[in-house]
Amino acid sequence: MSTTHPGADLASRILPADLGSNPDSRLAARIAACREQGRPALVGYLPAGFPTVEESVEAAVALGRNGADVIEIGIPYSDPVMDGPVIQHATTTALANGFRVADVFRVVRAVAERTDAVPVVMTYWNPVLQMGVDTFAERLAEAGGAGIITPDLIPDEAAEWFAASQAHGLDRIFLAAPSSSRERLDLVAKAASGFVYAVSVMGVTGARDAVSDVAEQLVADTRAAGAQHVCVGLGVSRRAHVEEIGAYADGVIVGTALVKALADGGPEAVGALTRELAGLA
């Protein structure tokens, strides 16, 4: 009788036999370096093009220069699934102001060239499909990007992305949720590289007064499934949350609070909040 749990069988059926873990991952290296310093990686999210492409470039650079280790550059999209009202408003504004998908590479390049933070793109999958998966991956790598976070792409449907990510040395960041089964967590852990994005709450993004108590268990379960690094997002808005989550996760992801700071006070406000979140203020 086999002692292999069902998730391993699912992963072997779905994932390419030659799918590697990206040994040259800049994301994994940065997260490991943060852990050696006794702290979690600070991961900040901002949408490209908000309120304009120029201002989004400067805001992303401010993130990187004030304590963010990893920067997620979001692609505004007309039909968001997991974005709360603050980010929805920002992305709607960016689209109204003329944002185009190609603009994201300009923001990524600025982060890569003007800061020491590791830039990644966070996007729904349709914009990548529209450009062409390999073309998008090639342009992202050329701009200095390290990978893509894919909220609505599951490993079961990611064959083209697996090929492109390996061809261009990019990380694949998939999501794990409190509702994910052991079988699903096993698949995500094996498919991902860089880190797994652990969604701490069921629902849309947004700053919250308290972080869900299921987050710690989700991190433990995802690690048990084989994930090398697990970062927690959704609901993080203040330094106390960073410290709380950092006690058990490899990285802490902040989005809505930073987007609100940008909307209210521009890139300078983003820099000030980043320093506070990083414990540098």
UniProtKB/TrEMBL annotation:
GO cellular component assignments: cytosol
Pathway where it operates: Amino-acid biosynthesis; L-tryptophan biosynthesis; L-tryptophan from chorismate: step 5/5
Coiled-coil stretches: none
Active site: E72 (proton acceptor), D83 (proton acceptor)
GO molecular function: tryptophan synthase activity
E.C. designation(s): 4.2.1.20
InterPro entries: Aldolase_TIM, RibuloseP-bd_barrel, Trp_synthase_alpha_AS, Trp_synthase_suA
Pfam families: Trp_syntA
Keyword terms, alphabetized: Amino-acid biosynthesis, Aromatic amino acid biosynthesis, Lyase, Tryptophan biosynthesis
Iron-sulfur as UniProt keyword: no
Domain of life where this protein originates: Bacteria
Catalytic activity: (1S,2R)-1-C-(indol-3-yl)glycerol 3-phosphate + L-serine = D-glyceraldehyde 3-phosphate + L-tryptophan + H2O
PANTHER family, A to Z: TRYPTOPHAN SYNTHASE ALPHA CHAIN, CHLOROPLASTIC, TRYPTOPHAN SYNTHASE, ALPHA CHAIN
Subunit architecture: Tetramer of two alpha and two beta chains.
Protein's job: The alpha subunit is responsible for the aldol cleavage of indoleglycerol phosphate to indole and glyceraldehyde 3-phosphate.
Family per record: Belongs to the TrpA family.
Name assigned to this protein: Tryptophan synthase alpha chain
Gene that produces this protein: trpA
